[in-house]
TrEMBL record:
Signal peptide: none
Annotated positions binding ATP: 9-16, 87-90
Keyword terms, alphabetized: ATP-binding, Cytoplasm, DNA synthesis, Kinase, Metal-binding, Nucleotide-binding, Transferase, Zinc
Pfam families per record: TK (PF00265)
Name of the molecule in the record: Thymidine kinase
Amino acid sequence: MAKLYFNYSTMNAGKSTILLQAAHNYRERGMVPYLLTARLDGRAGQGRIASRIGIGAKADTFDTADDLFTRLAGQLAQGPIACVFVDEAQFLTPDQVWQLARAVDDLGVPVMCYGLRVDFRGELFPGSATLLALADEMREVRTICHCGKKATMVVRMGDYGQALRDGAQVQIGGNETYVALCRRHWREAMDDCPALRD
């Protein structure tokens, strides 16, 4: 039975690596995976999912205006898809998460989403919040803070190495921009938080 999955974590936990390995496993068994990634994140090149360890694969892209149910129905009309893999799922809109859930329910195709749970301010991304509400199964992909504890938060670093407390929710970047931390060290970096000390 098809399900909607949400594999979530902070930055640098290996979400894309796990996605690419799972898609490879389908291909190795003669099945067809369908890969999607956010158009707005072109760090690996447009229409490409890549991991920090050097593996990658071609993918179709989505942006906020796309109807993903219609897209998947069209893809399935061209031939069978064993599983849909969505990278950078935090950039989905709430409507798109509902469209993916509908694809699971009405088209019978499993959908595996991989993305961040919270932003640098400790707030849920709208797509992630909807995935947390609708997913049939959720899995945390773990990484560690510099202290060795599980990292659940991320800070965005400024030009001079300071943790930023405000700014747009979305800013594309990697290790040069974001650092994964445990909650305690995130609170220290954010000056102990309470709503980021307005």
